[in-house]
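Handout, section B. The chain below has 127 residues.
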Amino acid sequence: MIPSMHVEFQKQKMVRRQRATVKFEHAEVEVAGYEIHHGKVTASAYPLMHCGDIGEGYFHNRLLGTHLHGFFQDLHCRTAFLAPIRRQKNLPIPSREVVKDPFDRWAGHVKRHLDWEKVIEIMEADQ
């Protein structure tokens, strides 16, 4: 469990789209994702982000916890989170990160390994 954070578990599962503002050491970032959990955070001494007026998650001394799935998929969020660590380790902060969409990677894999002529032949056979 995360210190200074209280979660009340509940039977009903919460699944919803959520937008929030995260304040890191040197940056404020807007993030979006899916909030998925059973229960709710009733207290957090160090909320990670704010969804309107409501604090969500936990962030203190590099310990991070959140119900927001997809949090690190956002390039700006990931860069802002890693920037202090990169500075401490004397690593460059990338000016731009190129990340290929996982669905595009999967589509490329399928395209390379499927015999599309055979697939079309099978699809047209029942017509």
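Note. Strands lie at 5-23, 28-44, 49-51, 54-56, 58-60, 63-65, 68-69. Compare this with the example in section A.
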